[in-house]
Amino acid sequence: MNSLKNIVKYVKKHKWASILVEAAIIVLVLVLFSWVQNRGTLSADGKMAPDFNLQSIAGKSYQLSQLKGKKVLIYFFAPWCSICHMSGGNLNALRKARSDEELEILVVGLSWEFEGEIQNFANDLELTMPVLYGTNQQMIDYKIKGFPTYFVIDEEGKVIHRSVGYSTEIGMRLRT
Questions:
Q1: pLDDT per residue as tens digits for the range 139-174
Q2: Total-model pTM
Q3: Taking the CA of residue 61 as centre, how many other CA atoms within 13 Å lie in the half-sphere pointing to its CB?
Q4: Are 98 and 145 in the same domain?
Q5: In the chain, at which end, N or C, are there fewer CB atoms within 10 A of the end residue's CB?
Q6: Which residues contact 22 (CB under 8 A, 6 or more apart)?
Q7: CA of 88: how far to CAs of 83, 97, 152, in Å?
Q8: H or E stretch including 116?
Q9: What gap in Å lies between CA 153 and CA 151, rounded to an integer?
Q10: Which is nearest to 119 in space by CA: 53, 59, 61, 165?
Q11: 3-state SS, residue 149
Q12: What residues make up the domain containing 9?
């Protein structure tokens, strides 16, 4: 108890120590928030990503297993999700920063009622990567609990990262 009092006195005396403690608390809160958001979602433990074969709004078919040899970012969104709309620019910026050879980006619409919702989402955000019509099967396979949710798949087809919620362009770059 005495050592705790000494720490509190030290922090009160030194402004930089107080700032450091506050920063540590903020980081801890963010880490806990991220943990709660990701809880229950398909884990990023190096297991094979569930395969899918989906149509794009352009009419092309995309099968995840055929992209082996490439790193893939799969971004799951719902057309009604405001956070998904806010992160669209980050996807476009990531696309500009990384070539198709370095990173394949697939944007998969879920929780939609009619195809026009997915097309409108893609058009509104001027997305420059394939936008696919997802199904409830991806919600089940990837254990998606909220939007946006994205996964990074390595060249072997294994899930190496996952995230739920808004992510900055820098956050996406660091994870891919």
A1: 999 999 889 999 999 999 999 998 888 888 888 888
A2: 0.77
A3: 5
A4: yes
A5: N
A6: none
A7: 9, 14, 17
A8: helix 115-125
A9: 6
A10: 59
A11: strand
A12: 2-38
